[in-house]
Each structure stands twice: as structure tokens, then as C-alpha cells.
Specification:
Length: about 260
């Protein structure tokens, strides 16, 4: 029997993911840990598979609309997937000490939520900085785009495997900085969703092997998220991002501070 509280949580997060491409792990993992009382490692493992399945529905919509830049996806994945595999292997090797792993996850989660909030608040400034560099230093900027995108993917692979946070919020900020003239708002969302699916699946493997996935909880979350992410994806072109972004940033900052100061 699906849990109604988990269904509501899944619907809220799914709607935000569809609208903005962000808010998946950044909201779901804290909700699972702080509100629903889920163990940190289980929360991360369950959320990774939740994110992958939820975002498939959103990618289907964006794929039909042609709002996915597959070249950028491949560049990000070239860094993120190997990094996720190596980080997952490290978690698996040190996973015998469950208390230590949970402590590392919670501290990493707190810092990532705070960093994500800062990224959201300065998203426009970073976009403008990237645009100015792209215009003033065309050849050098284009030369560095590929390698920097792979490096961004490596960073995302590590932090997403540890916390399930970063693929959406920080991923969109990085893409706007690295591709300031190439990506429209809808393409940022679509490209981010498309990259996040294989990353979440690869990152989730280590948690699945360790038995850190709650399938009943996962089913309840999906009951709410799949319809909501489809609706959010269709509405993404008209989403009031200027209003949503600071509200979400404040919420993530407060949650991150709560975790770090607990």
C-alpha cells in the first residue's frame, strides 16, 4: 500500500524537477532523512533510483520537443559516469562501517545543499560572466569548453554518488556558464535531465549492491512524481524561474545549515 506522505513528497519534487530541472536530490534526500526518518545511506540509494525513473518521463517530453543537447550530455557523461563508478566502489569498500558512511553522507549532504543554494543565487551572474568570456575570448573559450565540461561531469559524478545532490541544480549552473550562448532555458532543463538519468543509475548501483534501496518507499514516491514531472515538463517554458530560484535557494541553504549544525 503506497504511503500518502511519500506520494505527496514525490509529487512536489517531481513537479519542481519538470519545471526547472532542479530540486530532485536537493529536496528529496533531506525530506527522506529529516521528515520521513529514513537512514541517510538508504535515502541516497532510494533517491538515486527515484531520480532516474522520474526523469525518464521528463526526458521523453523534452526529447519530443527537441530541447536536449546530446553533445553536452556526452561530454558530461564522459566525466560523471567513471567518477560515479569509482566513488561507488569506494563506498562499497568502506561500507562495513555503516555509522561512518552515514556520517560522511550527512556532512557531504549539508555542504552540497549550501553550495547548491549559492549556485542558484549567483546563477545569473555566472551566466553573464560566461557570456562575456565567450564573446571576448572566442577561440580560447571554445577550446576549453570540452575539457571543462568533462571536469564538471567528474565533480557531479562524485557528489551525486555521495549525496544524490548536484545533478540538477549545480549541473544547470555549470552548463549556463560553459554554454552561455548555445543553451536556451528549456534546453538547459532538457539536457540536464537527459544527463542525470544514466548518472543516477550508475551512482545507484553501489547503493543497490549494498542493499540501501527501499523498494516500497521508492514505489510510493514514484506514484506521486511521474504524473507531476510530466506536467512540470510541459509547463517548463512558462515557469516563473525568477521567483522559484531564490525561494528554492533559501530552502536549501536553511536545510544544509540544519544538517551541518545538528
Amino acid at each position: 500500500m503506497p504511503d500518502p506522505h511519500s506520494i505527496v513528497a514525490g509529487a512536489l519534487v517531481g513537479l519542481l524537477v519538470g519545471l526547472t530541472g532542479i530540486g530532485g536530490g536537493a529536496l528529496m534526500t533531506p525530506i527522506l532523512v529529516l521528515i520521513l526518518g529514513t537512514a541517510p545511506k538508504t535515502a541516497v540509494g532510494t533517491d538515486l533510483f527515484f531520480a532516474a525513473i522520474t526523469k525518464i518521463a521528463g526526458v521523453a517530453v523534452h526529447g519530443q520537443r527537441g530541447t536536449i543537447d546530446w553533445q553536452i550530455c556526452r561530454r558530461l557523461a564522459a566525466g560523471s559516469l567513471p567518477a560515479a563508478l569509482l566513488t561507488g566502489l569506494a563506498l562499497h569498500l568502506f561500507g562495513r562501517n555503516a555509522l561512518k558512511v552515514d556520517t560522511v553522507i550527512m556532512h557531504s549532504l549539508g555542504y552540497m545543499l549550501a553550495l547548491t543554494a549559492v549556485g542558484l543565487l549567483f546563477k545569473t551572474r555566472l551566466h553573464n560572466l560566461g557570456r562575456n568570456l565567450r564573446i571576448d575570448h572566442v577561440e580560447r573559450f571554445k577550446y576549453l569548453q570540452g575539457p571543462l565540461t568533462v571536469l564538471a561531469g567528474i565533480f557531479l559524478g562524485v557528489v551525486v554518488t555521495l549525496t544524490s545532490v548536484g545533478a540538477g541544480a549545480l549541473g544547470t549552473v555549470m552548463m549556463l556558464y560553459l554554454y552561455p550562448l548555445r543553451l536556451t532555458p528549456s534546453k538547459v532543463v532538457g539536457t540536464d535531465l537527459a544527463h542525470a538519468i544514466p548518472l543516477a543509475l550508475v551512482a545507484g548501483i553501489s547503493h543497490w549492491l549494498a542493499g540501501s534501496v527501499n523498494y516500497q518507499l521508492l514505489f510510493s514516491l514514484l506514484c506521486g512524481s511521474i504524473p507531476a514531472v510530466i506536467v512540470g515538463s510541459w509547463l517548463s517554458a512558462r515557469a516563473p524561474e525568477a521567483l522559484l530560484r531564490p525561494i528554492l535557494a533559501l530552502l536549501l541553504l536553511l536545510t544544509g545549515l540544519k544538517i551541518l549544525l545538528a
